[in-house]
Design brief:
Bound molecules: 5'-deoxyadenosine, iron/sulfur cluster
Shape: globular
Number of strands: 20
Radius of gyration: 22 Å
Structural class: alpha/beta
Strand content: 15-25%
Helix content: 25-40%
């Protein structure tokens, strides 16, 4: 995924190129705000920029090559424009640090995720002193500098409540690049939420690699449900979502809180990664197929209107046809509303990358396609259940294809297309659903 933020400026222009997950999109939104506060205009034209920042991802094989490719493209620009500043932030910056300078001489700075607040100081140093190759990738295990962002939608604000991960799933690079898990104190999270609600945001999305192990590294003895309950005490109308919880840390108390608190959306993204207990063990996930299914059953019993989504990896080393059938079986049984499905990708530096029994790409593709087809069928069936229902939709804005159509989301995170106008954007409206496709519902404001 690649996003180019458009930054407009009075004096200097900057482009931010973002790869990767919501955490990176979140960091880029903060960098954008920092630059704007420092008289930069954000543009999406690298030829017309004084500063280019690439926010990098390393989750899948090939991601690093993509970044090096992009940096290579910038070389001629740097030769032409001596004062152009090029910076690399994000996971690759954290993981490769010195290698980036060795491979790409025209990079001016490499900055770790927890240091983005130092950008103004760093730019000043580069502009005023004759320095090359600034490295700010230390303090890996500290909380990042506190920075507020302007999110493009002006409706949903993303707030990181934990950083890093202690789980070491064997396919995943995150614990190596984002450091050990640490939590933002409750009062700071609440302050941040109030800041965004005061600015008119209507939806708060809590982010973390493993949100429901929240509390690690804090002096006070608090857990994720304590945090959720405190947030729900804020006396304003807003929706609360979070991503991603880990099945192993999903307590009965958490199910109760989701059920009882109206502000918490009735939608849970609960990554399973694989349906086979053998594969889950090789992945070091800490639960079995049966435990996952039991958890889902408990959730559905307590919260019948819950919508569920998941992440799945197919073709992990040594995954047999039978193992894959277990994954297929879970998708068949659980009836997720949506699944994010990936072919296993070898990440150098993780234990799974050197395991014997790597699966052929063609086999991975075939397994992925089977799952995609099954999920599409399930998503359509789930959506059809909404026909005739009246739901509350938070209107987000006109659709890119047809500006007369607006889109928004239900509490269960279903996308709804409806006829509206600008005055409803950012508002909660009651909508009657009259049609359902695989990925979208169609409704009429009542
Ligand atoms: N290969 C494929 N998918 C991966 N993910 C993480 N690491 C890998 C990998 N090496 C997926 C997981 C995770 C999502 C964000 O990315 O499903 O939940
Ligand atoms: Fe990676 Fe596992 Fe941590 Fe998620 S929980 S970030 S998959 S190590």
């Amino acid at each position: 995924m690649q996003n180019i933020f458009a930054i407009k400026i009075m004096f200097k222009k900057a482009t931010i190129i973002t790869y990767g997950c919501q955490m990176n999109v979140n960091d880029s939104a903060k960098v954008k705000k920092i630059l704007e506060n420092n008289n930069y205009e954000i543009v999406n034209d690298i030829n017309n920029s004084n500063l280019i920042i690439i926010n990098t991802c390393t989750v899948r094989e090939g991601a690093a090559e993509k970044v090096y490719g992009k940096l290579g493209e910038l070389k001629h620009l740097k030769l032409r424009k001596k004062n152009l500043i090029i910076g690399v932030i994000g996971c690759l910056a954290q993981e490769k640090k010195d290698e980036i300078y060795k491979k790409v001489r025209h990079v001016d700075f490499v900055l770790g995720n927890q240091n983005i607040g130092k950008i103004p100081q760093l730019l000043e140093t580069i502009e005023n002193e004759d320095v090359k190759h600034i490295n700010y990738t230390y303090d890996e295990d500290k909380l990042p500098d506190k920075v507020y962002a302007d999110f493009d939608s002006k409706i949903t604000a993303y707030i990181s409540i934990t950083y890093g991960c202690n789980n070491f799933c064997t396919y995943c690079i995150v614990p190596y690049v984002r450091g050990r898990e640490r939590s933002v104190p409750i009062n700071e999270v609440i302050d941040e939420i109030n800041h965004y609600l005061d600015k008119g945001y209507k939806e708060i999305y809590l982010l973390g690699q493993n949100v429901n192990s929240y509390g690690k590294g804090l002096d006070e003895n608090v857990n994720f449900t304590d945090l959720l309950k405190e947030i729900c005490k804020i006396d304003k109308k807003f929706r609360l979502r979070f991503m991603s919880p880990h099945p192993r840390d999903f307590t009965d108390e958490l199910i109760e809180v989701i059920k009882n608190e109206d502000k918490i959306c009735k939608n849970i993204h609960l990554p399973i990664q694989a349906g086979s207990t053998d594969v889950l063990k090789m992945m070091n996930r800490g639960y079995t197929k049966e435990e996952y299914l039991y958890l889902i059953e408990k959730i559905k019993n307590k919260i019948p209107d819950i919508s569920l989504s998941t992440d799945i990896i197919v073709g992990f080393p040594n995954e047999t046809d039978n193992n894959f059938n277990d994954t297929f079986d879970v998708v068949e049984q659980v009836e997720f509303d949506n699944s994010y499905m990936f072919m296993y990708s070898k990440r150098q530096g993780t234990p799974a990358a050197t395991m014997d029994g790597q699966i052929d790409e063609s086999e991975k593709k075939a397994r992925l396609q089977k799952l995609i087809d099954l999920q599409a069928k399930k998503s359509k069936l789930q959506n059809e259940k909404y026909i005739g229902k009246i739901v509350e939709v938070l209107v987000e804005g006109p659709t890119p294809k047809n500006p007369e159509n607006y889109s928004g989301r239900t509490d269960e995170n279903k996308i709804v297309i409806l006829k509206s106008d600008q005055k409803n954007v950012g508002e909660f409206v009651k909508v009657k659903i009259y049609d359902a496709k695989t990925w979208t519902l169609y409704g009429k404001i009542i």
